[in-house]
Structure formats: structure tokens, C-alpha cells
Write a structure and sequence with these properties.
Helix content: 25-40%
CATH class of the largest domain: Alpha Beta
Radius of gyration: 25 Å
Distance between the termini: 59 Å
Strand content: 15-25%
Oligomer: single chain
Number of strands: 17
Number of helices: 17
Bound molecules: ligand TNX
CATH architecture of the largest domain: Alpha-Beta Barrel
Structural class: alpha/beta
Strand order of the largest sheet: 8-9-12-13-14-15-16-17
């Protein structure tokens, strides 16, 4: 039955092509990013009205919302005839999110096994529209057949809003670009030492006190998202087929929260005051569980990221914490890492009572968390053993190694602000493009429990929107292609050609981006006090 549907569909395509006198031609550039698995360009064109797109399939009409918004079609052309896109869900064994798109003489058909696939097909159409030529108010597209499927299911982008806060409008713009690039997971780092950024009704001091300050100005007035803002952004993301994963970092990176509720601080370590929650105080667990219960009601993804990274920075304080010594004695623990793991296991126990999954940075793989319900973010490229341990234990793993997937790293050797690894290594747009083939992760990326990849933007050095854009663009397009396109299909020249066309779209959208072909077009956006720079 499934085969039959596909067969009929193909016959339909072939018949239509014969009617339109098809033949092959490679004359046109198809500037799609990420590039589809299979593109056939045929003779002839597809001519569409420059008018809103709609579908006869009422159940699927919601899918077109993002498309029409992005095209600005609804407002401009409310009286002109509507343009039909034929959307169909057909049963198929294809990978989740895959689709087929065919442009006919006056129509476009998108077929997929699920709504995510239809959405991906619509985004492809959107990219075709954006670069279509306009003749007498008609959009002229190439005549083509596309079969497409994602390489990885998790194609993520992470934004740290604790170190600097960017706000609703900027986040929505980023979600638009993510959707445009078929990125489908937004990991939102909402708490860290410099600021707590999400309203929690039960603990108002988290935002009124913990929301104050940022990485460059500890006296800045409180900035954060209200729960209403969060709901609005979650809905916005949903319309774009993006799932949001909130992160509340623990037991380290907790200074903003312990500033608000000092009673729950694990103590002061040299240079890291109040960096951890107190692992020996039962109240800590009640408090964090209450916080995460509220978080759970706001984010339908059912995945809560508990952080778990770099606890070592603050762990020295635990040596002077009498409660910790008692806890260790009572549980026969011999070192502080065991306390760290105890903390994470205890939090996992409570969180998994109301959340389907949890997620942690890769330090947590040795904490023995429930494997089938824990996702791991592997970020420490200098700890391949941690990746191997995560895989062999059977965790679901998202690859986000600093090299080459951290966007707070500079993207050119001449750039002065932002991180470099071992003083020389940085992340060029082509380094991201070639991931995971250029990484030790290449050996394992075929494993089924590697579910995808993610680019992370930490914002210690990101004081302005201009700098935010400069670090993200054009690397978001490389990230998108790394997440979608097979390694064997990658080709620098071909990618560069397509990227140049996308730079024009950034110009139109007033994006301040790094232009690898003309580095002087936009000088490095620094705008940051020296204090924020790192090596
Ligand atoms: C490490 S990645 C961190 C962040 C910093 C980042 C800077 C991770 C889990 N922790 O707290 O912002 O390096 O690159």
C-alpha cells in the first residue's frame, strides 16, 4: 500500500512532466540551504501568482501560517486570487521530517509522511520564493522535483540569555531564521551566575533580585521573561515546528539564584561565590523541584535541561560545608564528585515524576542517571571518553562540541573578541559546515543514539544585537547544512555559491553578518568591555 502510493505519485509526476515537455537542464542555481538530498531540475517553469498561499486541506492550513507571514503575502494581496499549494500526508516509511516537492506549471505539490515533513517542504518552497524572479507580478520558479530527508532529527541552536539578555523580539527573529534553516530545537539557557531570566511565581526574588545584572554590568536593572512572555514564545516556536528545551543550570552556575535565596547556597569557593546550590540541604531539592514544576507547565517539550556542567569550579566550598561532610559520612561517599552525582540523581528522581525526559551536559554521564529518559549534550571535545561513555551506556546524545560548534568562538584568525581554543583554534563557517566529518564524533555519528547536533551561543562577549548577529550569521547556515545534509554530498564551492545568495537575504533583513568573501564589508562587531573577552 505504502509502495503503491509512492509509485502512483511518481507516475503522476512523470505524466505531468511529459505534458509540460520536460527535459533536463542544470542552468538554474537552486540556492537552497540546507541542500536537499535529491534535486532534479527540469525544462520549463512554474509560474505562480504573487498572492497568498493556501491549501484545500483544511486540517493542514495552520502549516501555512509561517510561510505567508514570511512572504508578507496576506497583508499585501488580500484581494488577489489565492495560490494553491497541494499539501498531502501519505503513509510512508520515510524518515520523520522528509518530504517530496514538485513544482508544476501553475502549482506546487508537497507530499510527506507527517506534518513536520510538510513544514520542511514549505520552508524549501519559501526559500525558492525568496530567490524567485518576479515577472509581471508573477513569481517564476524552476520546474523541479525534490526528494529530501534530514540527516539528524535534532538540529539545535542554543542561546544563553543569562550572561546578556536579548528579549522577546530578538528571540522571535532567531526562531524565524531557525525555521528558515530547518533547525528544530531551541535550547534556552535561562539561568546562570550572571542572571536568572524566567519568572517563577513561587519564588519572586529569583527575578527581582536574581534577574539584576549581566556579564558586563552587575548593576543593570532586572531583565527576564514573564510566564506570559514564555507562553507567547513557545507558541511562536510551535508554529515554526521548533521545540524549546529550557535549561535551569544546577548544582553549579547558580550564583544568581543563590543571590536571591542565600540560604540555599552551597558556600563560597575562591572566585566563585555562591556558585552552587547546597547539596546537603533538603530544602534545596524542594525548592528546585517547585521551580521545575512551574517550568514544566510552560514548556510542552517534556524535556528539562538540568545543566550539571563545571560544578568543579565551586566544589571547593563543599569542603567547608558541615552538612556535606555529614551527607558523605551517612552515604559512604569518599569524594565530592560523588556528592555532585548524588545531587543530580536526586533531582532526576523528582523531575522524572512530572517531566518525560531530562537533559544534562556531558559531565553527568558518570552520574548514572536513568539512561532511557536522559539526553546528554556532549560539549567537551577534549573529553572524547565522555562521548564514548555516553554512547556505550545508551544515552541519547546531542553533539555540540566547542570545536567547531560554539558560536562564541571567533570565526576568523584576525578576530579579536570571543574565544579561541588553546589560543589559536576557532570556528570558521566551513568548520561548522564540515561537522561531524572533521571531528572525532565522525566515528560514532552513525550510531543510533546520536540523535543530532547543536550550535551553542554563550554570551559573555555578546553585549549587543549587532554582535549577536555577527556571531550567528552566516554560521547558522553551516550548522543547518551539517544537521541536514549527508557528509558525502558536501562541497565547499557549491556551498559558497548558495551562501552568497543567502548573504543577500541577510542584507535585505538588515542583519549585521560576517562576510567570509568580503571580510571588510562588516568589521568585527566587538562592542564589549575588555572584561568580557576570554582566551
Ligand atoms: C563553558 S558549555 C560553559 C559555559 C560558558 C562557555 C563559554 C558549558 C556547558 N559551560 O558556562 O559560557 O564554556 O564558551
Amino acid at each position: 500500500m505504502i509502495q503503491m502510493n509512492k509509485f502512483l505519485f511518481k507516475m503522476y509526476v512523470i505524466a505531468a512532466l511529459m505534458l509540460s515537455g520536460a527535459g533536463y537542464s542544470n542552468a538554474q542555481n537552486i540556492n537552497l540551504i540546507p541542500y536537499p538530498s535529491h534535486v532534479e531540475i527540469l525544462k520549463g517553469t512554474c509560474v505562480l501568482n504573487n498572492s497568498p498561499v493556501f491549501t484545500n486541506n483544511k486540517e493542514l492550513s495552520g502549516l501555512l501560517f509561517f510561510f505567508n507571514e514570511e512572504m508578507g503575502l496576506q497583508q499585501k494581496n488580500s484581494h488577489s486570487p489565492k495560490q494553491v499549494v497541494d499539501l498531502k500526508i501519505l503513509p510512508s516509511p520515510d524518515v520523520y521530517g522528509s518530504y517530496e516537492l514538485v513544482t508544476f506549471e501553475k502549482q506546487v505539490a508537497i507530499t510527506a509522511a507527517d506534518s513536520a515533513g510538510l513544514f520542511n517542504g514549505l520552508v524549501t518552497l519559501l526559500q525558492l520564493y525568496k530567490s524567485a524572479s518576479l515577472q509581471n507580478d508573477k513569481l517564476v520558479l524552476p520546474h523541479l522535483v525534490i526528494h529530501d530527508q534530514p540527516r539528524f532529527g535534532w538540529r539545535g541552536f542554543m542561546l544563553d540569555e543569562s550572561r546578556h539578555f536579548f528579549g522577546k523580539q530578538t528571540v522571535k527573529e532567531l526562531l524565524d531564521w531557525m525555521a528558515f534553516y530547518k533547525l528544530n530545537r531551541f535550547h534556552w539557557h535561562l539561568s546562570d551566575s550572571q542572571g536568572w531570566r524566567i519568572e517563577i511565581k513561587k519564588y519572586p526574588l529569583l527575578t527581582s533580585v536574581g534577574g539584576k545584572g549581566n556579564f558586563t554590568d552587575s548593576l543593570a536593572s532586572a531583565t527576564y521573561y514573564t510566564q506570559e512572555d514564555i507562553r507567547e514564545i513557545v507558541d511562536y516556536a510551535k508554529d515554526r515546528f521548533i521545540t524549546i528545551i529550557p535549561e535551569i543550570d544546577m548544582p553549579g552556575h547558580a550564583t544568581a539564584a543563590t543571590r536571591a535565596y542565600p540560604i540555599l547556597s552551597g558556600g563560597d569557593a575562591p572566585n566563585y561565590p555562591g556558585f552552587t546550590f547546597d547539596p546537603a540541604n533538603d530544602e534545596t531539592y524542594t525548592y528546585l523541584t517547585n521551580i521545575l514544576k512551574e517550568i514544566r507547565t510552560l514548556f510542552p517539550s517534556g524535556i528539562i535541561h538540568l545543566g550539571g556542567d563545571e560544578v568543579a569550579f565551586g566544589i571547593a566550598a563543599w569542603k567547608n560545608n558541615a552538612g556535606v561532610s555529614k551527607l558523605m559520612a551517612a552515604n559512604q561517599m569518599t569524594d565530592l564528585t560523588q556528592v555532585e552525582h548524588y545531587f543530580l540523581r536526586r533531582m532526576a528522581d523528582s523531575v522524572l515524576k512530572f517531566s518525560n525526559y531530562l537533559m544534562c551536559w556531558d559531565e553527568a554521564v558518570s552520574a548514572d542517571l536513568p539512561v532511557s529518559r536522559t539526553y546528554v549534550s556532549w560539549w567537551r571535545q577534549n573529553h572524547p571518553e565522555s562521548l564514548n561513555e555516553a554512547i556505550s551506556k545508551g544515552y541519547q546524545v546531542v553533539l555540540c562540541p566547542r570545536l567547531p560548534l560554539y558560536l562564541d568562538f571567533v570565526q576568523d584568525s584576525t578576530h579579536r573578541s570571543g574565544r579561541k581554543w588553546e589560543k589559536t583554534k576557532f570556528n570558521s563557517y566551513l568548520d561548522l559546515y564540515h561537522f561531524p566529518e572533521n571531528s572525532i564524533a565522525a566515528d560514532v555519528s552513525g550510531k543510533t543514539n546520536i540523535i543530532g547536533l547543536q550550535g551553542n551561543l554563550w554570551t559573555e562577549t555578546v553585549i549587543s544585537k549587532k554582535r549577536l548577529q555577527y556571531l550567528i550569521f552566516p554560521r547558522m547556515s553551516s550548522l543547518a547544512e551539517a544537521g541536514w545534509t549527508a557528509g558525502s554530498a558536501k562541497n565547499d564551492d557549491q556551498f559558497n555559491t548558495r551562501l552568497k545568495a543567502h548573504l543577500l537575504l541577510y542584507d535585505k533583513a538588515n542583519i549585521y553578518y560576517y562576510n567570509p568573501f568580503r571580510p571588510d564589508q562588516h568589521p568585527e562587531a566587538i562592542d564589549v568591555k575588555k572584561k568580557g573577552d576570554q582566551d
